[in-house]
Amino acid sequence: MVGATLALLACTQPGGRAPASPVQGTMPPDTHNSRNSLDWAGTYEGVGPCADCPGIAMSLTLDQDGSYTLVSRYIDRPAPPMVNHGTFTWQASGNAVTLDAGGGGARYAVREGSLAALPRDGGAGASPPSYVLKQAPRVAADMLAPTLQANRWQLLSAVDAQGSPIGRLAQRPGQPVTFVFTDDQIVIDGGCNALRGAFKVDAAKLQVGRTISTMMACEPALMATDAALAKLVEAPLQIEIDKGSVPLMRLVSASNDRLVFAGTPTPESLYGPPTIIFFEVAAQEVPCNHPKRGATRCLQVRERYYDAQGLRVGTPGEWRVLYEDLEGFVHVEGTRNVLRLKRFAPAATPPGGPGAVYVLDLVVESELVQK
């Protein structure tokens, strides 16, 4: 015991301090990497390779919680975009991420303001990146409301906290879920009935007041969509919008349901204030020679007139074939409708383009007509 104590004392410098370690004074290894040094969370855009097309437009959003949203579409085809949600992992170096199987296991080097695609079977420096995605700027908090109002928002995908699709909000061909924001109201459509309510954006939260709804009866699936949309906006939703070639809006509920919307400019932002008109749409389409589509079938419409109290006045206009589209309206053969529409007059119309743009504002009447 005494010998051990002497040996310990012999290894101790005066003052009781241990001798300096051989590595004392050397610089610690550099622990800075993309993960802890860059503001990497956000949306990145670019064009990826395609075996049988000019390219695939890609929008990849990386979130702080380790989840991603990948929106991709063929740039030469009119098909709707493909949307994948999933999780990503960081490589040990902290300089690259790998998407899960839903994202094809794609790997990206994370750089200042960009993601560089890496080979899936090699290291970060194995070969040059095959393409680069540039980071899109995020809309500032004080510009969220104006950006909402300048775009019409179409739902691309909706998943729950486990990443599973929310069936009641599944996309239906020709009947997308849309959010439209006016000066002080939101209009939600895509099920059977349109929902309306006041809205505000505060501290990156979208808050919708009590909603009112039209009272049409539809098939159970559409009524379930109505109920899901009404439930969704009962509580404030976290909101983020990334700019870019197509603005992307992400809404997150308190239960961590995640919805992604793509924005397209509203006619108001493109053409200015509209004129309100009313069209009666005949129950049956008629044969027509469309200037763009050739021999086909077209809607038959006539103008109707209402006073400030909403009472019908005057004599309806003459029936005519309508070659323009009625945005937001889906015609069901055998159903007569009276529509309140916003009519816009583009300042410059390209050759062969429509002389006016019509956007559905409200279905005033709807009647099933027997042949």
Beginning-to-end CA distance, first to last residue = 111 Å
Backbone structural class:
mainly beta
Q: What is the number of E strands?
A: 24
The CATH topology of the largest domain is given as: Lipocalin
Largest sheet geometry: 8 strands, antiparallel, barrel
Q: Which descriptor suits the 3D outline?
A: elongated
What is the highest CATH level, the class of the largest domain? Mainly Beta
Features:
single chain, 371 residues, mainly beta, Lipocalin, 3 domains, eight-stranded antiparallel beta barrel, eight-stranded antiparallel barrel, 5 helices, 24 strands, 41% strand, elongated, disordered N terminus
How does this model look, in words?
The chain has 371 residues and is mostly beta strands. It has three domains: 35-136, Lipocalin (Beta Barrel), CATH 2.40.128; 141-265, Lipocalin (Beta Barrel), CATH 2.40.128; 270-368, no CATH class. Helix content is 10%, strand content 41%. The chain contains five helices and 24 strands. The protein has helices spanning 2-10, 34-37, 144-149, 220-232, 267-271; strands spanning 42-48, 56-62, 67-74, 82-90, 96-99, 107-111, 114-118, 132-136, 151-159, 178-181, 185-189, 195-202, 205-208, 212-213, 237-242, 248-252, 258-265, 275-281, 286-290, 294-304, 320-322, 326-327, 335-344, 357-368. Strands 1-2-3-4-5-6-7-8 form an eight-stranded antiparallel barrel. Strands 9-10-11-12-13-15-16-17 form an eight-stranded antiparallel β-barrel. A hairpin with a 3-residue loop joins strand 19 (286-290) and strand 20 (294-304). Mean pLDDT is 85; it is low at 1-28.
